[in-house]
Specification:
about 300 residues; alpha+beta; about 55% helix; four-stranded antiparallel sheet; 8 helices; three-stranded antiparallel sheet
């Protein structure tokens, strides 16, 4: 191979290298600008496909064409009614003018940092301009009562703005500040809100105190109902026992009367039967009235004395 062939091969390689380096590809998710010595040249390249630039002296800066996520840091912010809360937010944004974006912010990291300043600032302003109730509520609908004890709770105050309108206000004001940055904020939302630790502890204590009060009320009502049931039970029991005793005495009286009638009919048939009945009744009386340690003094007119004397 002679020198001419070698030179031709080198020139061909150089030409091919320059040709390849002058071509760049954009896919559907990208947009780009061409810079020359650090300054943008020409219009932004937004259509997918093959694009060209001058090799070596021109470079390509790529930017995402898709919706991008912004996730804010949770910050402690005071509300208009002096309630300190932690607010965590998020947003979606898009690079709408890559040329302007490159001139003002250079890259996406700088864009995220600039959005931090804008959205955090507008969030603080919005929170500080509204009461807590306006921030956490979206409508004036009536609370859903799932338990009976909640029926006595006071209704929440009505709101005039609400959370959705505050989010829309932050979005509007933030877009006004990003209009010259080549970006557009598409959506903004409060992701999470909570009291700071000190205030949250006080709220929890107040909630526990309220629940304890309701529990004490239930216990008091239960004890009152238990005493009422116990009183009714004792009254009913005494009534049942009284009626049972009375019924037993009535039955016993009827039985005694019937037994007396039977005995009278049995022993009243003749004089001997009557004497036998009188004797048995006297002996029963004697048996029930005395024991072996009892001493008794009888007169001679006593019927018992008459039977005892007859037995001797």
């Amino acid at each position: 191979m002679n020198i001419r062939s070698i030179l031709s091969l080198v020139v061909a390689i150089i030409i091919l290298t320059l040709a390849f380096t002058s071509i760049f590809v954009l896919d559907e998710t990208q947009q780009a600008i061409v810079t020359q010595f650090g300054k943008p040249v020409g219009a932004p390249r937004t259509e997918p496909g093959l694009h060209y630039k001058i090799p070596i002296i021109q470079k390509v800066q790529f930017f995402d064409k898709r919706y991008l996520a912004w996730d804010g840091d949770a910050n402690q912010v005071p509300t208009k009614d002096k309630k300190f809360i932690f607010v965590d937010t998020y947003a979606r944004w898009q690079i709408t003018n890559p040329l302007q974006f490159f001139i003002r912010l250079r890259d996406e990291n700088s864009g995220q940092s600039r959005l931090d300043d804008i959205l955090d600032g507008e969030t603080r302003n919005a929170i500080a301009s509204h009461d807590l109730l306006e921030i956490v509520r979206s409508t004036n609908r009536e609370p859903e009562v799932e338990e009976e004890f909640m029926e006595d709770m006071e209704n929440l105050d009505d709101i005039s703005v609400g959370r959705d309108k505050i989010e829309a206000l932050v979005l509007q004001r933030a877009n006004e500040r990003t209009a010259d940055l080549g970006v557009k904020i598409l959506d903004f939302r409060f992701k999470r809100m909570n009291y700071v630790d000190e205030v949250r502890d006080r709220v929890y204590e107040r909630m526990k105190s309220e629940r304890n009060r309701i529990a004490d009320q239930f216990r008091s009502e239960g004890q009152g109902e238990a005493r009422k049931i116990q009183g009714n039970k004792e009254r009913d029991l005494a009534k049942i026992q009284s009626e049972a005793t009375r019924e037993a005495e009535v039955i016993q009286g009827r039985a005694d009367a019937q037994a007396t009638t039977i005995y009278a009919e049995a022993y009243n048939k003749n004089a001997q039967a009557r004497d036998l009945y009188s004797f048995l009744r006297s002996m029963e009386t004697l048996e029930k009235s005395f024991d072996e340690k009892t001493s008794i003094i009888l007169s001679t007119d006593s019927e018992l004395y008459r039977y005892l004397k007859r037995g001797n």
